[in-house]
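Replying to the earlier thread about multi-chain prediction with a worked example.

Input:
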Amino acid sequence: MTTGQEKGRPAGQGADPEPRGRPVPINARFDNDFVTQLVLVLDTDTLEEAARKVAHHVVGRRIPPRDADLVLRVDGKSLPSGLTVAEAGISPLDSVFVGWAE
Amino acid sequence: MARMPREQWLNIARDLDWELSYVDYDAVFPEWMSGQGKVPREAWSKWEEPYRVTYPEYVATQREKETGAYSVKAVLQKSKVFEQLDEGWKSVAKQHFGAIALAEDIAQYGELRMARFGLAPAWRNTAVLGALDEARHAQIGLFFPHELIGKDPQYDWAHKAYQTNEWAIIAVRALFDGLMMNPNVVDVSVEIPFTFETGFTNVQFLALAADALESGDISFANMISSIQTDEARHAQQGGATLEVLVEHDPRRAQWIIDKSFWLSARLFSVLSGPAMDYYTPLARRKQSYKEFMHEWIAEQFLDQIRDYGLRKPWYWDEFMAGLETWHHALHLGVWYWRPTVWWNPQGGVSPEEREWLNEKYPRWEQHFGRIWDVIIDNINHDRMELTLPETMPWLCNLCHLPIGSAGSPYNDKYPVRSYPLEHNGYTYHFCSRPCRQIWWEDKDTLHDPTVIERLLAGGIQPPTVEGILAWMGLTPDVMGEDPYGYRWAKAYAKQPAA
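Result:
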């Protein structure tokens, strides 16, 4: 795991050093990756922000970057990116899928 | 005094029992320990081990084996053999020692439980010798790596690993606690001597012995071959128990085999799979993991259970499909999360190795090649921080392996996804339907919290990547690293862009 600049960062949290909502640990899969991962999002995050947090652990690491928007899905349904995690009804331990918007 | 010939006393002594008069049978052989179930008490008198050994014979044979194994080691200790071994191969040995040496110690308790609570005298006597076997295996598995600690601190994990919270060890410990320590001994003897030892140890001991010899690690090959000869003897307890159980409760027999075969297959896919197909140097590989599993495990095991009138497990097609993908996903995971293991996982995806992988596994490129390409590009452009994780993979609540590793990308039938289950208000996650079903049926003996559960419950402090590594007991001198400084990936830098 990375050290130095990542020191002290909660596991699973990629890009948001100052939490402003309640943490929601999700079981996240990015399309075409080979594992699901623990990612901490906040209940106040928009789904676009949550999707970025998931992508942080995958894109450029195991999946090539693309110039495309991200989409977040739960139970097979794509959800509007402007909703917050709380509004979307995403709870701790939920399975969440993120991929490129086609 | 002349010795009585063994034929005149062995058959009586090995099966000598007595009627209890001062204590109830159920107090001596309680159900929760002995597991008689639907099998009538008298049926256990048919318990019979095919290969019989007296104690003097046992001691003489074991002495011979010990002399052989230790004298070869003593000779090689003075040579430069160790220094010439490939680092990839050394990791096979380090992984084996850490995962197995003290598991053998736990196996001793499993045997002793059968020696105490086994339902036939012949079984109890056979298990006593089995316990002595396992004591020997733990000793030899600790002694052989001990001399290497001064050369490489990762060998210290032969003794240390089992006593830490390192994730792979939690997987190993959960399996052996679930199959050896927690269930009753009827279940234990079908799960371990029959399914695990008869069915699976061939992979770790025969296949690795062949690869060890090819790799020049004669001492290791000699050690594990010596261990395997014991396994072959005490494993017969399983068949003898199964024969009685099948006659009176075939449904239970089928379930015990189904669940323990699945769990064993999942564990071996993270131990033997990467060892055979990635760590062993290409020129030294005898068979691919899939080839070995097809020949030595799948076919032989099915023949064996059919001989007992049992069916192939309900998930058989999924298991066979998994031989194409499971261990590749697990290797990729172990490599990417390499600071979390006590060995140095060889990347093993150089152009030549990749060609071999594609030849042995025709869909390897489609499933995993694209992911390795991103990793290779990062290595060759010095973006090393992107080749290291900042979070944990979600782990299966039964096998404790990463969710996704029972499937693969671009795989419609077995995709990368969790199979969740809500129970008592908590969402448990599983890598596959069989893991979920087995956990649901037998969670009382099988459940052990995963690293993820412990992290989220506040059991790992601080909850940072450094905190997790410290909680696992991993120090910088031991954390896994690519053994030859990513040499395998450098060849791609010389290739023209596609």
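Confidence is low (pLDDT under 50) at residues 1-8 of chain A.

Feel free to reuse this layout for your own posts.
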